[in-house]
Amino acid sequence: MEKQHESESLHQFIQVIDGAICHNIYAGYIKILKNTHPSRSISVQLRVTSDPPNDDVTGQRISYLMNPIIVGANSSSEIGCDVPGPTRQRFFFVPEIVKWGN
Fold first, then answer.
1. Who has the most CB within 10 Å: 7, 24, 57, 90?
2. Yes or no: domain 2-100 corresponds to CATH 1.10.600
3. pTM (two decimals)
4. Which percentage of the chain shows pLDDT scores above 70?
């Protein structure tokens, strides 16, 4: 139970925010993972989903965990564009597994 409580409390330091526009036609934004903790790195695995929820080619539902991203104290890291191409498919990035970084 201690590990779950720690993960929940670490979520308060993690934000996914909009950066610069990356796709003018479909209003896509660079997504940025931000750590607001003043002195510690945090490791984050993001759950990626999309709208529409299915892959255009295979028809399979899109939902997967990204590899861990370690974000330094009071730092940020670019995740990518939420509308990367002409399909209008929008991707969402939600912090799922959050731990102290190395």
1. 90
2. no
3. 0.85
4. 92
